[in-house]
Write a structure and sequence with these properties.
Blueprint lengths: L23 E6 L4 H14 L3 E5 L2 H4 L23 H7 L10 E4 L4 H14 L9 E3 L4 H7 L6 H18 L3 E2 L1 E4 L1 H5 L4 H21 L4 H4 L3 E7 L3 H22 L12 E5 L11 H15 L4 E3 L12 H17 L13 H23 L3 H6 L2 H18 L26 H17 L2 H16 L5 H9 L4 H12 L7
Parallel strand pairs: 1-2, 1-9, 2-3, 3-4, 4-5, 6-7, 7-8, 8-9
Helix pairs in contact: 1-3, 1-12, 4-18, 8-10, 8-13, 10-11, 10-13, 11-12, 17-18, 17-19
């Protein structure tokens, strides 16, 4: 059996794994306003998180400013609203961007948020080469599972690969994509579907970048992945091990990669949000602990643990602290970190790893026969497969074949009224007024000039990132930049 740190990295991407360095402890956060989210970030840093993870509100995700009619009722609800460089500066106030790694869960508007982050650093005198973090930038899974796409697949893929190329030259320590199976699993896929569809998307991104003339040995080293940790403990451990082996093999044999760093399947894990129950919410602490253990035993590089109240609301300071403490207890008290791949050699885990790898390969081959992931998504095949799995799972729960403790077995009539986080409507109104004030105070003639330059670049083939950065410097808003792309690329509407 191979050792940890040896190709194809089934047992881990580093020889020492956590004996040398623990995983990055992140807690996904963002709500109401940039100021409120900044307060939560500082609270989390004081409690011991080792990296930030930003949640953006729905209007930000789909390219609308807070004052847009489409944003009404959604500003600050599921994440932080970011409209301009002023918001971004408030969000990261007093946070050392050259010392803290930041992950941003954003896709359709990923290039814009990355530009905002770069300009915040620039205004503080921090060179972009010193910025560390990850932009999710995984648009394919939006068409599959999440729905926050804006533009058609082809121009969206151009934006993705423009980020790859720009970061290779200007932000070399940045992970340019987090290819996400998490949302595929949340939509109802099985573990093997999560694995196969995620890696098939990864293949599509690599091929698109190669087709743009990029060097796979360079950009491949900055690719990362994002997986779900679900309830089936041993299957999840095996899934993570199979993912590393499959990706290393794909990169070496399909794409001829020779740079070992570009062979590594580095991934962030989040515990399963869809497994949390509104009934008996304390049970969610146990679920999250089991899921977090599977991620650590599976060799994750980064981890978020869900809070127990997230089936009801955004988490409070108290519940997010408990979620973080779960990671810290695993790290500092369990002893697991002393042994790279502790389940290596287990008959059950090794057999499950082989089975998941073989079945995922079969699905990837099927996707290849359709012409690749983009075609399989555009014709609705991937979405249909996930919907079928979700339906079968729910039927098993409804029939009582699949037991969910506190939901369809061991239920309780007790009435529990937990303290939930409430959205401050005054902060929402202040956010909307801030973007209106910005649009009145700035140099609007200069804004128009920069947006026109961006439009010309979008119509051509130049890398779009420098033009977005110029727009950000000129105080163009996220919605205005997204609207330029809407006018050039069009909006995508699924028809199947």
């Amino acid at each position: 059996m191979e050792k940890p740190g040896e190709y194809p990295f089934t047992r881990g991407i580093y020889p020492e794994m956590y004996r040398k360095r623990l995983w990055t402890m992140r807690q996904y956060a963002g709500f109401t306003s940039a100021e409120a989210s900044n307060n939560r970030f500082h609270y989390l840093l004081n409690q011991g998180v080792t990296g930030l993870s930003v949640a953006f509100d729905l209007p930000t995700q789909i390219g609308y400013d807070s004052d847009h009619p489409m944003a009404e009722g959604e500003v600050g609800k599921v994440g932080v609203p970011i409209n301009s460089i002023r918001d971004m500066e408030l969000l990261f106030k007093d946070i050392p961007l050259d010392r803290v790694s930041t992950s941003m869960t954003i896709n359709a508007t990923a290039a814009i948020l990355l530009a905002l982050y770069i300009v915040v650093g620039e205004k503080r005198g921090i060179d972009s080469a010193d910025l560390r973090g990850t932009i999710q930038n995984d648009i394919l899974k939006e068409y599959i599972a999440r729905g926050t796409f804006i533009y058609p697949p082809q121009p969206s893929m151009r934006l993705v690969t423009d980020v790859f190329a720009f970061c290779a030259s200007h932000v070399p320590r940045w992970n340019t994509i987090s290819i996400s199976g998490y949302h595929i699993r949340e939509a109802g896929s099985t573990a093997v579907q999560e694995l196969a569809f995620t890696l098939a998307n990864g293949i599509a991104y690599v091929q698109a970048a190669i087709d743009r003339g990029l060097d796979v040995n360079t950009f491949g080293a900055r690719l990362s992945f994002f997986f779900n940790a679900h309830n089936d403990f041993l299957t999840e451990i095996a899934k993570f091990r199979a993912a590393r082996r499959l990706w290393a093999t794909i990169m070496k044999e399909r794409f001829g990669v020779t740079n070992q760093k570009a062979l590594l399947c580095r991934f962030h894990t989040q515990t399963g949000g869809s497994t949390l129950t509104a009934q008996q919410i304390d049970n969610n602490v146990v679920r999250t602990t089991i899921q977090a253990l599977s991620a650590v035993l599976g060799g994750t590089q980064s981890l978020h643990t869900n809070s127990k109240d997230e089936a009801l609301a955004l988490p409070t300071d108290e519940t997010v602290r408990l979620a973080l403490r779960t990671q810290q207890i695993i790290a500092y008290e369990s002893g697991i970190v002393n042994h790279p791949d502790p389940f290596g050699g287990s008959y059950v885990v090794e057999s499950l790893t082989d089975e998941l790898e073989a079945e995922a390969k079969r699905i990837i081959d099927e996707i290849d026969s359709m012409g690749g992931a983009v075609n399989a998504i555009e014709n609705g095949w991937v979405q249909t497969e996930i919907a079928r799995s979700a339906y079968e799972y729910q039927q098993a729960v409804d029939r009582g074949e699949k037991i969910i403790v506190g939901v369809n077995k061991f239920t309780s009539e007790e009435s529990v009224d937990p303290q939930l986080l409430e959205i401050d409507q005054q902060l929402i109104r202040r956010q909307i007024q801030r973007v209106k004030t910005l649009k009145q105070q700035r140099d609007n003639d200069h804004v128009k000039t920069q947006l026109h330059r961006l439009e010309k670049a979008a119509q051509g083939s130049d890398n779009i990132m420098p033009f977005i950065i110029d727009c950000i410097r000129s105080e163009c808003t996220l919605g205005e930049i997204a609207d330029v792309f809407r006018s050039v690329f069009g909006e995508y509407h699924q028809t199947y």
